[in-house]
């Protein structure tokens, strides 16, 4: 049983009653900003509201922990597209306190995969092919340190505009308070 049917029947009503009208905007952000933040459900409405953003204001890229785990992966590519194609003039990397990614234990997560039917052979094969699953799945211990690392990665990326403004912040998922991450 999934939520799909419920979602689709709500969606028909949403469209036929033109509830979309209050969200009408363009693909170019009204405030020339792109945000990278965590997929945590508590931030879904809180983060934009706490920063005074409404629909159409900003680009938001999300990943578990607001982590960019590869300099040439999809997250970094999204940030570059925002900068070069969608008129973003500032990047905000916003981690949060009490993040699920700070508690991820790769060994335990691999065990959960085994429990749900992934074979040890598959895991061993990936490890032997150089994927290094433990590293790939690893979270972080200190969110400030993690955000600082991401800011450095974006600022120093070979394809990023030199001197581009990249800000690091941490948000409180209960109150929406933003703390600046100190530069090194
Ligand atoms: Zn998180």
What would your notes on this structure say?
- The longest helix has 13 residues, at 4-16.
- The protein is of the alpha/beta class and 184 residues long.
- The model has no long low-confidence stretch (mean pLDDT 94).
- Helix content is 38%, strand content 15%.
- The chain has helices at residues 4-16, 43-50, 74-85, 106-115, 120-128, 133-137, 143-155, and strands spanning 33-38, 59-63, 90-96, 166-171, 178-180.
- Zinc ion is lined by residues 38, 40, 65, 96, 99-101.
- Zinc ion binds next to loops.
Show the helix and strand layout.
Layout lengths: L3 H13 L16 E6 L4 H8 L8 E5 L10 H12 L4 E7 L9 H10 L4 H9 L4 H5 L5 H13 L10 E6 L6 E3 L4
The site of zinc ion has 7 residues, from loops.
Structure characteristics:
binds zinc ion; alpha/beta; 5 strands; 7 helices; five-stranded mixed sheet; 184 residues
**Helix and strand succession?**
HEHEHEHHHHEE
On the 0 to 100 scale, the average pLDDT is 94
Catalogue the ligands.
Answer: zinc ion
Rg, nearest Å: 19 Å
Strand order of the largest sheet: 2-1-3-4-5
Structural class based on helices, strands and sheet pairing: alpha/beta
What shape does the CA trace take?
A: globular
The total of helices stands at 7
Low-pLDDT stretches are none
Q: State which percent range the strand residues make up.
A: 5-15%
Helix content: 25-40%
Largest sheet: 5 strands, mixed
């Amino acid at each position: 049983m999934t939520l799909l049917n419920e979602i689709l029947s709500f969606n028909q009503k949403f469209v036929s009653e033109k509830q979309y009208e209050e969200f009408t905007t363009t693909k170019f952000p009204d405030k020339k900003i792109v945000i990278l933040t965590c997929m945590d459900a508590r931030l879904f409405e809180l983060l934009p509201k706490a920063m005074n953003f409404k629909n159409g204001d900003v680009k938001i890229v999300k990943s578990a922990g607001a982590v960019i785990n590869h300099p040439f992966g999809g997250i970094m590519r999204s940030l570059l597209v925002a900068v070069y194609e969608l008129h973003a003039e500032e990047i905000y990397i916003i981690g949060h306190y009490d993040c699920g990614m700070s508690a991820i234990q790769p060994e335990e997560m691999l065990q959960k995969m085994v429990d749900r039917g992934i074979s040890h052979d598959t895991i061993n094969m990936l490890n032997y092919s150089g994927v290094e699953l433990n590293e790939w799945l690893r979270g972080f211990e200190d969110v400030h340190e993690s955000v600082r690392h991401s800011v450095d990665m974006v600022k120093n990326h070979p394809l990023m505009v030199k001197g581009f403004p990249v800000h690091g912040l941490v948000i409180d998922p209960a109150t929406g308070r933003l703390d600046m991450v100190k530069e090194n």
